[in-house]
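Issue: ligand-bound run for flavin-adenine dinucleotide - logging full I/O for the record.

Environment: standard queue, default settings, no custom constraints.

Inputs:
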Amino acid sequence: MSDRFNRLSYWIVTAPTTEFPQLAGELDVDVAIIGGGMVGITAARLLKDAGLSVAVIEARKVGQEVTGKSTAKVTSQHNLAYGKLTRTFGEDGARTYAEANEAAIRLMADLASRYGIDCDFEPRAAYTYARGEQHLEAVEREVEVTQRLGLPASFTRDPGLPFPVAGAIRFDNQAQFHPCKYLAGLAATIPGDGCHVFEQSRAIDWEPTRVVTAGGTVTSRAVIMATHLPLGQVGLFYAENYPHMHPVIAARVDPARAPDGMYISLDEPRHSVRTHRGDDGNTYLIVTGPSFKHGHVDEERQGFAEIERFAAEHFGAGAPDYRWTNEDYTPMDGAPFIGWSSSARNGYLVATGFNAWGITNGTVAGIILAALASGRDHEWASLFDASRVKPIAGAKEFAKQNLEVAKELVGGYLTTKPHSFDELAPGEAAVLKVSGENVAAFRDEQGRLHAVSAVCTHMGCLVGWNENDRTWDCPCHGSRYEISGEVIHGPTYKPLEKKAIG
Ligand SMILES: Cc1cc2nc3c(=O)[nH]c(=O)nc-3n(C[C@H](O)[C@H](O)[C@H](O)COP(=O)(O)OP(=O)(O)OC[C@H]3O[C@@H](n4cnc5c(N)ncnc54)[C@H](O)[C@@H]3O)c2cc1C
Ligand code: FES
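Outputs:
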């Protein structure tokens, strides 16, 4: 495996680089959008279509955060979502979710074709499959529910995988795409007519009508916070969604052994699989595996070992060409939070809790947020209402997650070995107490030590090491940092303090 690509997502490496300017000075627009991922860029495009002026303010590069590290399936099939949604939100709620996600697939196909975006958008069937008989009943029930909701669902025992399955749910007319090519292409259509896209421009302060970066300020009538999880303390959404991290690989396979559909398993350990025909002529198998706790290296290693074994054993994949990790948030009651951050409808417009299905749900969010920011209502808005009272469903899991956050806040995950940073070999990292302070340090291949405070700037949990990506990740609410301490992912927006240690 080439070390150059080892920590980067396949999509990021193989997409054209975007070159939008940094925000400098003062600007006034109708709507300011913080974040240039699936949600932010979709909302910007739709607002521009509605004749409003927008400014997208992206901290890093468009499409290169969570969206650009996904498996990029474009589907309304979200595991066994519809049975659960029916129980929590009733059949009408589940139908709205289905219709919204099906509409998102159509909108994405339409935008790609309307703007001539070459993003490898290809029709594919989606399958949720059970290898063991113990999940068969759940599969059959989900087929029944999804058919009743009008989704293109059927039952099959032959989803085209190279191993036997007890049963699978098949959805027709779904798709897969290249997420970075799509967002780069869509973002390129935004500048002009009073609309702007800014990169390398992190929001460091905000109000409901103002966004501030180091280089400038945007004033607006509304602010969409499309940062995957709202920043800082906005709406306290970090208490209603918990983060999960996944290993992902892209490995070359013989096209004759590449499965045709997009797959996700119900059995443990869970696997999600699709293929992609690269511009280099190779066929890649993209696989994700079981979730692991942020900053827990042992679980991360097991996750990568598991998906590499799975890809080699069943599809004859070689050693991965690309390995990366990615995170998303599980919402408390099974539906994403999309809309106003407070019931008074005077705060920020937000979208979060996509539970690893934010390509279509992120498009749904773009549609709803664009409507709300233009002063219109939307027929799907009440299901996803971000300020809704959460039902009891999921409360037990949340009590457990909150207990774990409390443990991280008081204790953290201090490394027991080594005892001193002097013992770190090149490529190794540790979190240690130094003169009473918690310090996170990484030694690079040239022997230099990069030391930063290990205390997350969001709410003070201790960060842990992500060995593959070489990042410091917070187990409490999912903030991520570079080894230099620079922020990669929120809810934080402040870097880790640098520490001067030998
Ligand atoms: C392993 C994995 C696989 C997945 N696969 C799929 C899939 O196949 N299909 C599917 O539907 N979903 C999938 N998802 C989920 C999906 O990728 C996400 O839910 C979705 O991409 C989130 O989009 P977003 O716009 O909310 O976030 P992002 O793409 O992360 O966009 C948010 C943007 O905000 C920027 N930002 C953050 N803070 C600031 C700040 N202070 N100032 C300015 N900008 C800021 C970030 O840099 C980023 O670019 C997967 C998730 C995981 C973890
Ligand atoms: S992300 Fe909340 S404490 Fe770190």
